[in-house]
Amino acid sequence: MISVLLGLRLGRWGVFGFSLAALMSVFAQTAGFYQIAGHTLVQRLQFGASMAALEAQFVALFAPTIRPDTVEGFVEFRGFNSLTILFAVWALASATGFARGDETRGIVEMELATGTPRPVLLAARSAAFAIAVSVASIAAAAGFVIGVATNHDTVEARGLIEMTLLIAAVGMACYGLTLLVAQVVGARIATASAGALLLVLYLLNSLSRSFSWLSTWRWLSPFRYYDLSQPLPRGGYFDGRAFAILIVFGVLATALAAVAFMRRDVGGSILRLPSISRRAAHDASAMPWWMVPVVRGLYERRLGLLAWAAGTAVLAAVFAALTRNIVQALLSVPTLLPYLSIFVHQQLYPAVLGYTWSNVAQLLFAALAITYVASWSAEDSDGRLEAVLANPTSRAAVVLERMIVLTVAAAIIAAASGVVLAYASHAQGIDLVPQRVAAASLMLVPFALVFAGAGAVLAAWNPRAAVALLGALAFASYLDTELGTIYKLPLWLQDLSAFKLFGTPLVNGVDGRNLALMLLLAIAGLGSSILLMQRRDVGT
Amino acid sequence: MLVEMAVAAIRTSKLTKDYGSGRGLFDLDLQVGQQEVFGYLGPNGAGKTTTIRLLMDMLRPTGGSAYIFGLDCTRESVAVKKRVGYLPGDVPQFGSLRGTEIVAYFGGMRGRVDKRSVKAIAQRFDLDLSRRFREYSSGNKQKLAILLAFAHRPDLLILDEPTSGLDPLNQQEFYSLLREARDAGATVFLSSHVLSEVEHVCDRVGILRSGRLVKVAQLEELRHIRVHRVEIEFASEDVVPEVKLRSAPGVEEVTVAGARVECTVRGTFDGLVEAIADSSVTDLVSTEPSLEEFFLSFFGEPKPKALTP
Questions:
Q1: pLDDT in tens, A135-192
Q2: B116 touches chain A (CB under 8 A)
Q3: In this complex, is the C-beta atom of B156 within 8 Å of any C-beta atom belonging to chain A?
Q4: Which candidate among A176, A300, B69, B294 keeps its CA 20 to 30 Å from the CA of B275?
Q5: What is the pTM of this model?
Q6: Interface confidence (ipTM) of the complex
Q7: Mutating which of B16, B50, B93, B97 best tests the A interface, going by the most A Cβ atoms within 10 A?
Q8: Nearest neighbour of A285 by CB, restricted to B96, B100, B122
Q9: Minimal CA–CA distance to B145: which of B159, B134, B156?
């Protein structure tokens, strides 16, 4: 029980932040539905048709819902489906935080020293996350109830309860899988390996909707068992068997993780690469890049950079390959033809590819900026910033070097994905304008810098809270662009969202004003972070 | 050169860092001369690390000023750090970087790596730089931190509890490294809460309590002040020189129980050695007093409330 409480205590900000995010996002989507869907039956049907078009474009990410013209169908698609990704990310952070982070900090060793058996400790932390994810799922349900009630509508309790159970079960399954991976591989690559596995399992299920050959393997993905139910819309369904499999998935993965935890050394891993015998060295590395600012930072992050570039490029190729399927799905719906005629003038294929890929790329580059800010915060807490500042370098130079490293890294990743996108789309017979591909790819750099600038400010102000706050900011920024027009937010407020400022450069080219605003926001962030860094204490 | 000689290596004036609730460092006036080895002594939480972090420009002072070689520690911190080697109290974490890479990384930040110096120190401490940081034991991590502080042969070494984590053999190696640095012209500012360590290497000692500097003493003065608890086991009850012991200079609180004697020795051991010289001693244990006991004997009052910066 003490271990469960300790797990909740250590993750209290996660519980608070993700519950708040779940509540706010579901509430915003629910309330937003009543603003945009109209009130008459005809208006709702028209709205449903436009939503079906949108769903078709995002079929590679989310399963289409059965009733997009109803608040339940709309919120299931826009709100709860996104929460499965959010909870998967949370599970990843929480499980690796326990299995590796707490182990590195000695917390696990201390707990085991009290006589707590390893499986009990692991079960306790899993129980703590189960409580946490349940709280966040209930918060999401509460957001839906509040949104519906404030618009004088009613909620079908059974469907909502089933939906709540489903998203919590997805979170638990992802937690169990991450725990298992974290036992198998070393601390250094645990988060990346578990993240890659969850991404592959997610894409295995979502891409199987477009590529039938993948459907043979989608039973391996926990997200598949989420997809098999659509409990929220009226007339929806809840597949009890699929839900049970999802639960078994989580329990089994956790049990296997417990077995693996019992078999490995604390601080070690099940899989160990054979150690290469090295000759003892008493010299500094002679590699010249350690002498060059920025280059040394890039070299240190070379493996991560390579993984990001390769992953983003693969996704770009996947989305280029998906475009024809998406467009064909769109064209097969007669009611969508008038809606699509808007796009046809602008070349349908590039328009759809531009829209879908841009959305995914923006999310990836926001995540990239967050991971860099996380490493800046870690440098603060693990004493590395103090060690750096003990050298003849100014605080401003440290902040500046960090930003330049991120800029170059983002440019490399953007270039890799841009080249692959152009090549893959050409192979699919979709001819994009090369200049626009280049411009759209390069626009991802200032986009990432907006978040990096905000992150630098947060890391200078409060490094411990920086990642959570930046994540919340990115989420709010995403909601801003999603809901800004629905709620008629002031233009200046909408313009603070990098997601909105990014625009659709692959389709319409780069908007100079938006680019200037993004650069301005990034520079403002950089300048403010330098000022804050000058004033603060380091190492307290 | 004459001007340079006249400038103190470290000078603080009313240096203050107030964390609130009486915690922090207050009105520190301190001067450390060039080529001096200065020990900074105080119990945990007295403000030693706060002082060091203020000198290193990690913390912003609430008031007062600090200068290193005449350079303002806050406004001219980059110039200051060119001349300083710093060993933090907590060894920074470098994850999966190898020792060779860490040394090159920080060498790069200073513009160049003094290869000869790096090699000499690494060999001296038998530190294998080919290994990843996360594979190092805590002692090896401390050795790496020592190497990073000494490698560029700085004019001033600021060392925060430098021997923590080192085994006795490596502690001795560290002390000799320190003496060599001083002989080569370096100034050393070393914090510690171990009396014997300070005695071992320092010329002068500053004693800090509750965030205030209460005493700056020459080493001789410290030796004179300090006390040891001594337990002596004589060959038999008959040979215990009780009278001699009770009248020996510096020997106090003598308790005799059969052939076993317990006493306190203040200052040097000369009086005690003379008193037992003619007796057959089978065992003799001298225990260094804790800092708490030292404060009790020095100030006549218990250790102050611990402060955590």
A1: 999 999 999 999 999 988 888 899 999 999 999 999 999 999 999 999 999 887 888 8
A2: no
A3: no
A4: B294
A5: 0.83
A6: 0.82
A7: B93
A8: B100
A9: B159
